[in-house]
Amino acid sequence: MKLKIGYLYPDLMNIYADRGNVECLRRRCEWRGIAVDVRAITVGVTFAPDELDIILLGGGQDRQQRAASEDLQAATGDSVRGAVEAGAVLLGICGGYQLLGSAYIDADGTELIGLGLLDLETRHPGFVAARCIGNIAVDWEGGILVGFENHGGRTYPGPTAAPLGRVLAGGGNNAEDGTEGSVLDRVFGTYLHGSLLPKNPHFADHLLGLAVERREAGYELEPLDDAAEWAAHRAALALLGIRQGE
Ligand code: GLN
After folding, report:
1. What is the predicted pLDDT for the residue at 246?
2. Is 193 a catalytic residue?
3. What pLDDT is attached to residue 245?
4. Could you tell which of 150, 191, 193 is best to mutate to test the pocket of ligand 1, judged by most ligand atoms within 8 Å of the CB?
5. Does residue 151's CB lie within 6 angstroms of at least one atom of ligand 1?
6. Atom of ligand 1 nearest to the CA of 122
7. Ligand 1 pocket mutation, candidates 91, 94, 123, 193, criterion most atoms within 8 A of CB
């Protein structure tokens, strides 16, 4: 088994340790004897629909996000959409998540066009409004995801958007409706930085499971000793006053 991970815009969209998601997936594969290739996809780089198994897009400041949005409207965006259509897993974090929707209207009112893969739009209410900053916990498929959020933009899901989870503590999509993130098939968006995947090994394996299953039906991921990962998860929850299992 061999997986190829595309790391989208490492030079533009990579804050609050989002790079850790790439390293986490790489190590979780290597520990299981799964070969991994990580390819950096920078501005202007294209790839074939079947070339990548997992694509990761981190968060960024509005200025870098604008550059990413412009590039995604060109050939790189077509490559990402082609890969998703072919069955690749895509994870966008914060600014990267915002670019998976139709648009992000920034604090100056400038519209940054997104990939349109998820039915949602994000609007920054302006600098008078408080940013959503802090630790966050989300109810996800009967478990919990922990992370750190820092965003001005408020994401409003459209009628066909399914939330990734429900906020247990923190702001989430818009600090109003209790939803966090969005998912459609193999496309995942979330506000959780942190890094997200190292301290949420169940979610990391969910993404890897989808990727290996696409390459080989019935392929089972070997269980790993995640004691350190769960300790980090519990420590993050404890910061929010939540004890695991509650
Ligand atoms: N620029 C976006 C916002 O503030 C995203 C920030 C981020 O990726 N952390 O809403």
Report:
1. 44
2. yes
3. 52
4. 150
5. yes
6. 10
7. 94
CB atoms within 10 A of CB 15: 18
d(CA 176, CA 163): 13
The C-alpha atoms of residue 85 and residue 102 are separated, in whole angstroms, by 17
151 counts as catalytic:
no
Segments of the chain scoring below 70 in pLDDT? 245-246
Domains of the chain and CATH, by start? 2-239 (3.40.50.880)
19 CA → ligand 1 middle, Å: 16
CB of residue 65 inside a 6 A radius of ligand 1: yes
3 state DSSP class of 80: helix
- The amino acid occupying position 93 is I
Show Cβ contacts of residue 183 under 8 Å, excluding neighbours closer than 6 positions.
Answer: 162, 163, 164, 189
Cα–ligand 1 centroid distance for 2 (angstroms): 33
- The amino acid at 185: D
pLDDT for residue 49: 97
Q: How far is CA 211 from the centre of its chain?
A: 15
Q: What is the DSSP string of 1-56?
A: -EEEEEEE-TTTS--TTTHHHHHHHHHHHHTTT-EEEEEEE-TT----TTT-SEEE
**Is residue 179 helix, strand or coil?**
strand
d(CA 143, CA 119): 24
Q: What is the pLDDT of residue 243?
A: 82
149 lines ligand 1 (CB under 6 A): no
DSSP bridge pairs for 56: 7, 91
